[in-house]
Amino acid sequence: MHLSKLEKVELREVWKHEARDFTQWLAQDDILEILSDEIGIDIGLLQVEASVGQFNVDILAAEKNTGSKIVIENQLETTDHDHLGKIITYASGFDAEFIIWIVKSLRDEHKQAVDWLNDHTDQKINIFVIKMEVWKIADSPYAAKFQVVAKPNDWAKAIKEHQSSDLLSNIKMLQLEFWTQFKEYAQEHQPQLKLRKVSPQHWYDISFRFSNAHLRLTVNSQSGHMSCEVYIPDDKPLFFHLLEQKTEIETALSATLLWEELPAKKASRIKVVHPCELTHQIEWESYHICLLKQVIAFQKVFTPPIKAFSA
């Protein structure tokens, strides 16, 4: 058996000019989707070369479900102080919650600076450093690889944010740990899921690539139940479009769903409910297994009708 050698390619061999070549390549929907998968947030392009005073950020984007601003700065070289200052300037100028710095290599002192910023800011500031690599095998086409080399610590930031105002209640602590363990379980068993940071709250959102709907998991300590739902923030026509297919959807899921139009609100939701006792930590693994199965089933069943409606 003949095995070819995996070869690393110089970035400048692929993209001669950072702005004209690399940024334009990165701004493509399918490439941003790959980057989204790598860091776990849904990135939607807003503008290339967006102005901040006398400066231009390479890419201005938004998190598809929440609208939170994302700034992306590209540097196909080793990191330097100039670009570190720029990403902070761009983030403040657009009030961005996510900063993505794509680089050839990360100096130790800059990793230390980014880690320090992530550790000493609240959950509204999240800095990712992505190492850009390109590989090939013999005469194969180039293959681009995004590698996360610095990122926020979700648990530490959540604790810090709430401790700054008030001590976390026992329930909040349980919620934070419940979702942290769920995220770890889901990442191990379904790594293709785009999972966002966890917070000490009774819900956890998961995207399935639509701006008008997403999946929401809940765990309610007072009512003693957990749920998986399609949450529609502001699109009643979509809700009624799905309601017209109620029989087919429930048959495919082998479940009876709760269809909540919520007439007095902009939002609506479709959910399945299961019993759950948050304080029974010995049962958490079974809860996580159940929730992940529901997420996979909901994605499979709801994606086609939502996609058809959104086309």
Care to describe what's here?
Strands 1, 2, 3, 4, 5, 6 and 7 form a seven-stranded mixed beta sheet that branches. β5, α5 (108-120) and β6 (126-137) form a beta-alpha-beta unit. α7 crosses α10 (284-310). This protein folds into two domains: 6-152, Trna Endonuclease, Chain: A, domain 1, CATH 3.40.1350; 157-310, Yope Regulator, Chain: A (2-Layer Sandwich), CATH 3.30.1460. It is α+β, with helices and mostly antiparallel strands and 311 residues long. The relative contact order is 0.10. Helices cover 40% and strands 29% of the residues. It has helices at 11-14, 18-26, 29-39, 81-94, 108-120, 154-163, 170-189, 236-243, 246-253, 284-310; strands spanning 6-9, 43-52, 55-63, 69-78, 98-105, 126-137, 143-150, 203-206, 214-220, 225-232, 258-260, 268-275.
Quick structural gist:
The protein has helices spanning 11-14, 18-26, 29-39, 81-94, 108-120, 154-163, 170-189, 236-243, 246-253, 284-310, and strands spanning 6-9, 43-52, 55-63, 69-78, 98-105, 126-137, 143-150, 203-206, 214-220, 225-232, 258-260, 268-275. The model has no long low-confidence stretch (mean pLDDT 89).
